[in-house]
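hey so i finally got around to running the thing on that chain from the lab meeting. sorry it took forever, my laptop kept dying and i had to restart like 3 times. anyway pasting the input first so we r on the same page abt which one it is
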Amino acid sequence: GWETNWNPDNRPVIYGDPVETWDISATENDNVIAELYPDGNMYTLVIRGKGAIEEYRAEGNWDSPWSENYRSLIKTVVVLSGITHIGRIIFGFHNNLTKVFLANTIKTMGDFVFWDCTNLTEITIPKSVNNIDENLFPGCSSLITINVENDNPSCISINGHLYSKDKKTLIAAAQGQSNLQINDTTKIIGI
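ok and heres what got predicted. didnt touch it at all, straight out
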């Protein structure tokens, strides 16, 4: 089901049956399915199940199973409750991706998850995430705001940029902003 923290006026709306379905489980103990739903002339990708999403560009898995045919046609990604890890590069180069909804069961996110998502303008990191790679958003040139839910144990948002909770590390800058003012307590810049 939809997360209670998602804005009711901005929740994703899914109609009909998926046009494609893929198993993207990281291990045999996980049960993670990706479903592609039509959304006008574009698509919404819904990820559901329990466990971790597979890593891509690792051990011979070079691209997510929908990349060749649908990568440039996906405008919304919805990760539902039950998913605990988002694998590396899973949404890399999805250049028409504009909306991402992440459930509060995600604990970790791999590197380059949103690599070169050039139309992504805003994202919210759930409070459940306790480990984020510093290379989460490279090439996201339109990203204006990285929000972090209250009570996140590992990171916060300051002026739309992603910092460690102690404010000593700038994890990711919102690259769509024209002006980056670094917090006074920042010692490490991981952009």
